[in-house]
Amino acid sequence: MFKKHFMHQKMMTKVLIALLPILLMAIYQFGWRVVLLLAVVLVAGSAAELFVMQQIQKDKVKLTEACFVTCALFTLSLPPATPIWVAVVGIVFGIVFAKAAFGGFGYNIFNPALVARCFVYVAFPTHLTYNWTEPFRGFPAGLTAFSGGVDMLTHATPMIGMKAGGELPPLSDLFFGLTSGSLGETSALLILLAAIYLIWTKTASWKIMVSTVASAGILTTIFYLTGVTPTPPQYMLLSGGLLYAAV
């Protein structure tokens, strides 16, 4: 019965494996609330896909493993203190309007996780631009805590700090993930390891990743050298969600 209504996809399994270290890092930084947020998003996203596709395909409806990937990608793109109801609204919107509306898996022309992220960014900007949490530091960090100080919502991310003309954080903090930011974007090291795994298993195209990062690097270098921005290109590449989005 389970196999009848579930589509296992080997490629999607590999993507989930690549995301696992990033998820563990998010728990280490911000506590076990990350797991609760992901679990709720998984339930809401799966329910939305099954319900809507039932109306479209009737008895042929199947829950795809790609839905799990969408839910994981979306969750890890959110700030740690994102309210659960905002995450639920976002994933339902992404699944319904960016995936099911086009006919389901393989027919959607937009990435449902990115559509969901864009929707909540526009609809609930306060939660997506101001509510940032200071990560735990030192062992055991967030492994023994539920949240990373959800009530402390004034800590700036590296990108916000740089735009405000603040002090640049050490590059090592950006590389290893010792900064505030969205759940999956803080550790450049783990994102690069995920990229290596996806390329090695022939799951993703290295050309797309490299061209995306190279284009951003060239443009930010030009902007830096011409005085458009005071931020060195290496900080721009390691800050924010550029690497996460590219991979």
Please describe the structure with a list of short key phrases separated by commas or semicolons:
247 residues, mainly alpha
Task: Give a structural overview.
This protein is mostly helical. Helix content is 59%, strand content 2%. It contains twelve helices and two strands; from the N terminus they run E-H-H-E-H-H-H-H-H-H-H-H-H-H. The chain has helices at 10-30, 33-57, 65-76, 84-98, 112-123, 125-129, 158-163, 171-176, 188-200, 206-225, 233-238, 242-246; strands spanning 6-7, 63-64. It has a two-stranded parallel sheet with strand order 1-2. Helix 1 packs antiparallel against helix 9 (188-200). The chain is globular. The two termini are 35 Å apart.
SSE order, one letter for each helix or strand: EHHEHHHHHHHHHH
Q: How are the strands of the largest sheet arranged?
A: 1-2
How large is the radius of gyration? 18 Å
Mean pLDDT across all residues, rounded? 82
How many DSSP-defined strands? 2
Briefly note the structural class of the backbone. mainly alpha
Helix content: 55-70%
Put simply, the count of helices is: 12
Separation of termini?
Answer: 35 Å
Largest sheet descriptor: 2 strands, parallel
